From TrEMBL:
Keyword Ligase: no
Gene3D superfamilies given in the database record: 3.40.50.740, ADC-like domains, Dimethylsulfoxide Reductase, domain 2
Domain (4Fe-4S Mo/W bis-MGD-type): residue spans on this chain: 2-58
Domain of life: Bacteria
Stated name of the protein: 4Fe-4S Mo/W bis-MGD-type domain-containing protein
Keywords annotated in UniProt: 4Fe-4S, Iron, Iron-sulfur, Metal-binding, Oxidoreductase
InterPro entries: Mopterin_OxRdtase, Mopterin_OxRdtase_4Fe-4S_dom, Prok_molybdopt-oxidoreductase
Amino acid sequence: MSEWHKTACNLCYVNCGLEVQTDGRAITRIRGDKDNPRTAGYLCQKPQRLTWYGDHDDRLTMPLRRRADGAHEPVSWEMALTEIAARLREVRDEDLAEGRPGSFAYVGGGGQGNHSGGGYGHALMRWMNSTRYFGALSQEKTGDFWVNGKLFGGQTCHTSEGVEDCDLLVVIGCNPWMANGFNRARNLVNTIKNGPDRKMIVLDPRRTETAAMADVHLPLRPGTDAYLLGAILALIMARGGADRTFLDTRTEGFDQVAAALRGIPVDAWIAHAEVERAEVERAVDVILAASAMTVRVELGIQQGRNSTLNSYLEKLLYLVTGNFGRPGTNGLHSWLVPLWGESRGQRSEITGFEYIGGLLPLNTLAEEILADHPHRARVL
């Protein structure tokens, strides 16, 4: 019998309201929840594909246990959970008896929207006396977290965008038209495009759907974001665009930053990014004319070359111009329960990598398991 149920999407932190039609355990239809006060029936393309994610041909429908010959055999959930629990207890007891750190490595937990796995994962890690936590966040966002810690005093301080109230939206390394990322993204991008007093700048190598709607699109060469952002900031400084009232009352150490920005060889850096200086100047014109600019970034600069520096420079863009902590600008928020913590100087015994926000990068996971080390990971 078909039934409709209200729920929420967990594929990003916007958590759009959903209504799903079910037939037994199968989801048969998905639509936006028009009663949801935030998203009002809006959906991006990701939840519209939930039936495919849940039912595609490669999806496992039961636990598989590896046999001695390397092949896998289906087993019941009861058997799988019982055997996994027994093996985890055995490994935990061995670690305690040997006096070694927990051999358990945890991968998952998601981030942003899908927190439930992370909460259970943290509890299991504590029980296993382990600190090895890997996930999408540890590969994508740790540079951003580290910068937040230096700028705002805590790596769990997370910034958000005032897209609904801004008169200038700057989009760097993302495509909200396809990936959402802020509330009712397509509606808001359309609203900004059609608003006579609102503008949009996009920095992206590709002419994305969002870039095609922008007032200024800077199609930089991939991997040169730091050069282009540095050049833009240098031009803002040269034109007297720094908000000295905001900087003098709300920040420390800006004179050192200003000196570094003034030393940027603007023409050389713009040429390295392979964009036209006239278009960069036009983008700076729009930035300096804005009364409320907000900057939206994502993985395009957070997983690219110079990713940590990129995260610093994109934040300087709104801090130097004083577009912070007001409606329509960037600011800190409290609506995301973080799955990460603070850096404490701890490093992996195996790789020497520092735990940033309590996380280790996924590209070191194999070494944690395969290393010839008495404290290597034994369970994943």
